[in-house]
Design goal:
single chain; 146 residues; mainly beta; Thiol Ester Dehydrase, Chain A; 1 helix; 38% strand; binds coenzyme A
Length: 146
């Protein structure tokens, strides 16, 4: 069993934030080693980041870069995967989003939690012409519940 079995592992799961994407890791997403394929996790992270970017922009966005991506721990079939996305920076046309991924893994009637992956992903607001478009200004409280 390779979940985080340390005392307080359940409490590792952030309760003060709302996950942007939650999904169960199915066998179909496994790699040849039997663990979950990193590309599938990256796709969930990109979706989570784009959700908050679209909410901020109020329009279409395109992923332009993943400026960092770290896989700390493996994800296993059956893990409950939660992606927490939070806007780090808003530029003229770009939105930089930090995405953290936690798993919850059933063990002895408890859900043990662990942080498995994190990334910083940059989105660009796109206009009708497919070119970068200027972002609106939002108040400082925008997205504070993410
Ligand atoms: C997104 C796209 C329209 C942006 O066009 P562009 O000519 O590169 O845009 P710009 O150079 O004007 O940059 C736009 C913003 O993105 C930021 N940016 C561009 N490349 C970046 C990079 N590699 N890392 C971080 N930020 C970047 C710029 O700093 C700028 O931010 P700001 O306006 O807030 O200052 C274009 O790059 C594109 O179509 N890329 C493909 C996107 C795509 O298909 N994504 C899906 C991948 S599967």
């Amino acid at each position: 069993m390779s979940a985080n079995e340390q005392e307080g592992a359940e409490e590792l799961f952030p309760r003060d934030r709302q996950p942007t994407v939650r999904i169960l890791a199915m066998p179909a997403y496994a790699n040849p080693n039997g663990n979950i394929f990193g590309g599938w996790i990256m796709a969930q992270m990109d979706i989570a980041g784009s959700v908050v970017a679209v909410e901020y922009s109020g329009g279409r966005v395109s992923t332009v870069a993943a400026t960092s991506m770290e896989f700390h721990k493996p994800v296993f079939v059956g893990d409950l995967v939660s992606c927490f996305a939070q806007i780090q920076k808003v530029g003229s046309t770009s939105i930089t989003v930090k995405v953290e991924v936690f798993v919850q893994r059933a063990h002895d009637g408890r859900l043990l939690a662990d942080k498995v992956t994190e990334a910083v992903i940059v989105y660009v607001a796109i206009g009708e012409d497919g070119k970068p478009s200027k972002l609106p200004e939002r108040g400082p409280d925008f997205g504070r519940y993410w």
